[in-house]
Amino acid sequence: MGGGGGGQGDHQKQPLLGKLSEPGDSSSEKRLVKRTGTVWTAMAHIITAVIGSGVLSLAWSVAQLGWVGGPAVMLFFAGVTAVQSSLIADCYISHDPERGTVRNRSYMDAVRLYLGEKTRLFCGFFLNFSLFGTGVVYTLTSATSMRAIQKSNCYHREGHDAPCSAGGDGYYMLLFGLAQLVLSQIPDFHDMAWLSVFAAVMSFFYASVGLGLGVANVIANGVIKGRIGGIPLVSTTQKVWLVSQALGDIAFAYPFSLVLLEIEDTLRSPPPESETMKTASRASIVITTFFYLCCGCFGYAAFGDGTPGNILTGFGFYEPYWLIDLANLCIVLHLLGGYQVYSQPVFGFADRQFGGAEFEVRLLGTRRVNVFRLCFRTVYVAATTALAVWFPYFNQVIGLLGAFTFWPLGIHFPVEMYLVRNKVMPWTKQWLAIRAFSAVCLLISAFASVGSAVGVFGSETS
Question: Is the peptide bond between 15 and the residue preceding it cis, with omega within 30 degrees of 0?
């Protein structure tokens, strides 16, 4: 699966960073780095970014929406993500009258070029906060999975009704943070294809375990549980809020727009990077949707109205305990790569803005060390780890923030950049279609945001 290592026969095809004008690059940053990525490495990055442990929570979402609504919503957001990724992929290369051909290496570079500096500053705050918050949430989630391993072993020894409790979340988070201190010294996306491939394999494994256990449970039950309209509730208002939360969970499980251009920047050409990126995006969305539908539907079929929030860490399954342990371990290993995928845009921005001198050290041979990179990334990882330890409910806050930022970062800015880049005239059929797409996504995002807010504040008061 690869192209990240650079094939011997492609040296004449590899564009160098210095050949095109690149926003934000200082002269010292225009390194002669060969872009060697292929559709396979791009798919690995995308799947690592998209398929998170949240795939195991989709059964709960299907339980709220029912047998018709659950699959329909997943397919709808798969289509939304396909359109969204296509719009952003086209923004990678632009043609500026003054600077010639410009390569937008990051989301913020593209926003600045097409929409201006003020807009870039506005979206930059939310973008970097969202990426930083994702790092905190991944740290928290890793501790949840490690704790689930401990509890699984306890249930196996003491029985499923035993009052098993597992502490030590802070200890698990520190272990995860220590691993990230090492991985964060990977220079950029060009050098981490191996990590994304590894993380993608881990995500396939634990998603397959969740799917397999769901199928086995359905066969053992001898009946498909669940209802057309989902879990019935006495209160209509409560049902509306839970449907809203489920809609938001599915909506926010798909997009990878925040890291799309960084991934595209690793691709070699020919063919054009945008074509390769679109192919990788479509293939990844198909694979992701297949796993989402299978895990969500079989999980609901297995548990019906009793579907847990997470079929592994929420102990929808208890046995075989060793398989549950292995699946949770794979979640942690996947999160190691996922953390890096969402941190590299921040690292890359800091490197381009501030650079830093390099010096040689003798450690297992002679290696070059960038002082600024070492210090900044160490502080960044320490900050995400510390916030996770001190504020363990941050995942609820970032979930609410993700609901509010889904439309502007995932839909609005990509749409506006596409309209500017392609000089789409107002009130044409294309303009109206794109505006209608944006408006529908805004309404859905607003509804999901309200549900997320109710869920956060409801959990805090309960």
Answer: no
In the chain the domains, ranked by start, together with CATH numbers, are 8-461 (1.20.1740)
CB 143, CB 169: distance < 8 Å: yes
Other CB atoms within 10 Å distance of the CB of residue 274: 18
Residues 6+ apart with CB under 8 A from 431: 419, 424, 425
Whole-number Å distance between alpha carbons of 183 and 22: 26
Count of CA atoms in the C-beta half-sphere (13 A) of 381: 22
The single residue listed with the structure tokens 């790569």 is 337
Packing angle, helices 117-158 and 394-407, rounded to 10: 140
Contacts of 66 (CB under 8 A, 6+ apart): 226, 227, 228, 229, 230
Containing 260, the helix (H) or strand (E) segment is helix 257-264
Secondary structure string (H, E, C) spanning 320-332 = CHHHHHHHHHHHH
Please give the Cα distance from 89 to 84 (Å, whole number).
9
What is the spatial distance between Cα 105 and Cα 93, in angstroms, rounded to a whole number?
9
CA distance from start to end of the chain: 48
> Rounded CA gap, 357 and 334, in Å?
32
pLDDT tens for each residue of 59-96: 889 999 999 999 999 999 999 999 999 999 988 888 76
Single out the residue of 283, 282, 254 nearest to residue 82, CA to CA: 282
- Please tell me whether the overall predicted TM-score, pTM, comes out greater than 0.90 for this model: no
Cα(447)–Cα(395) distance, integer angstroms? 20
Q: Looking at the chain, how many residues does it have? A: 462
Evaluate whether 95 touches 21 at the Cβ level (below 8 Å): no
| CA distances from residue 49 to 5, 25, 331, 420 in whole angstroms, order as listed | 21, 26, 13, 28
Q: Is 229 helix (H, G, I), strand (E, B) or coil?
A: coil
Q: Is the peptide bond before 271 cis (omega within 30 degrees of 0)?
A: yes
Confidence of residue 13 (pLDDT cuts 50, 70, 90): very low
DSSP class per residue in 375-438: HHHHHHHHHHHHHHHH-TTHHHHHHHHHHHHHHIIIIIHHHHHHHHHTTPPTTSHHHHHHHHHH
Per-residue model confidence (pLDDT) at position 166: 62
3-class DSSP state for residue 81?
Answer: helix
Cα 244 to Cα 310: distance, rounded to the nearest angstrom: 18
CB 183 within 8 A of CB 139: no
